[in-house]
Design goal:
- With about 350 residues, the chain is an alpha/beta fold.
- The protein has one domain (about 10-340): TIM Barrel (Alpha-Beta Barrel), CATH 3.20.20.70.
- It has eleven helices and twelve strands.
- The chain has an eight-stranded parallel sheet with strand order 2-1-12-11-8-5-4-3, sandwiched between helices. A two-stranded antiparallel sheet has the order 6-7. The chain has a two-stranded antiparallel sheet with strand order 9-10.
- Helix 3 (about 60-75) runs parallel beside helix 4 and helix 3 packs parallel to helix 11.
- It is globular.
- The termini are far apart.
- The mean pLDDT is about 95.
């Protein structure tokens, strides 16, 4: 094989034993995740905001940001349920570039996945301890999910992973909501097939075991826009797009039909300052149509302390080193405005 095997990584059980959740924190996770699940099963009419940096690049500014979200959550808790993004695995279109804290706990240093496994567990645990938030992460590697599965509140399957069999089958064994993004091509049938697979039970190989999943009834759609054959970004959050998705759900045998809409990526053309406008348009569509209102469970927003993005090494506190984000002042204003509109 044309590769080097650097170090044997510890299994998730050993990492959890070394960095365990207390009984008290486990109860917080259980209570919190029931709240999130209740939104996707229709037991709760709260609106979910999966919100935070494109990538979690360091503890200090990420925890600072999540602490700010905690303060806002207390102001809007009757209508909005905030699920902070702590995205520690980053897919790269070409495979090159910063792949997240799992790979590089220090973005300026070489990859070290042993340190990365510890770093991502520590960050998610610290956010839970500080704020009571269980957070969202992207499942870039299905086999790594168990390093965090006792802490997470929400999982996203990315546009480039949604057609992969292992992602779909692993999602079918999770007990928290899993959002399946439409692929970059925009073909919604791929996304719907992925949701179907995730909602059904399966027997498959997982981390060297013959595993049997029981199906995940809260697997759902994420609309993130798409790219046409000319490489142009096109949105799929408009009223007609949501009616089309509702029609696809109505023709399926899926339970708990739901969608979370990504206001950045191809929906905004990676122009993060467009996100408030997009969010308000979606809320308007919800007010206009009861089917859309029932189906749209929340938004996914890329937000950090500072507007925009920077290159690795520029060291602007709280500014994304991957995709550009909406800054804090605009984010806080948007959340409060949304609470008034819901």
């Amino acid at each position: 094989m044309n590769m080097d095997f650097i170090v044997k990584l510890p299994i998730p059980q050993d990492v959890k034993a070394q960095y365990p959740l207390t009984d008290e924190l486990s109860k917080v996770v259980e209570k919190r995740n029931k709240e999130i699940n209740d939104v996707f099963t229709g037991k709760s009419d709260k609106f979910v905001l999966v919100i935070g940096p494109c990538s979690a690049d360091n503890d200090d500014s990420v925890l600072d940001y999540i602490g700010r979200l905690r303060t806002v959550q207390d102001k809007v808790e009757d209508k909005i349920l905030i699920v902070p993004r702590i995205y520690t695995n980053k897919p790269r279109t070409t495979g090159d570039g910063y792949k997240g804290m799992l790979h590089q706990p220090d973005p300026n240093a070489k990859p070290d996945m042993l340190k990365g496994i510890v770093a991502i567990r520590h960050l998610h645990m610290q956010a839970l301890k500080d704020t009571g938030f269980t957070c969202a992460d992207e499942m870039l590697y299905p086999e790594n999910h168990r390093y965090l599965n006792d802490i997470l509140g929400y999982v996203a399957i990315g546009a480039r992973s949604v057609e992969d069999q292992q992602h779909r089958l692993t999602a079918s064994g999770l007990n928290i909501p899993v959002g399946m993004k439409n692929p970059t091509s925009g073909d919604l049938s791929v996304m719907m097939n992925s949701i179907t697979a995730a909602q059904h039970s399966h027997t498959f190989i997982y981390r060297g075991w013959e595993a049997h999943s029981h199906g995940n009834p809260t697997a759902h759609a994420i609309l993130r826009g798409y790219v046409n054959k000319h490489g142009q970004s096109l949105p799929n959050y408009h009223y007609e797009d949501l009616l089309h998705l509702h029609e696809l759900y109505s023709k399926s045998d899926l339970v708990n039909p739901a969608v979370v809409i990504d206001t950045n990526h191809a929906n905004s053309g990676k122009k993060p300052l467009e996100q408030p406008r997009i969010a308000k348009e979606i809320l308007h569509s919800m007010r206009h149509n009861s089917d859309i209102h029932k189906m749209v469970k929340g938004l996914m927003i890329e937000s950090y302390i500072e507007d925009g993005a920077q290159r690795i090494g520029e060291c602007v506190y709280g500014k994304s080193i991957t995709d550009p984000c909406l800054g804090w002042e605009k984010t806080e204003k948007l959340i409060l405005e949304m609470a008034d509109l819901l």
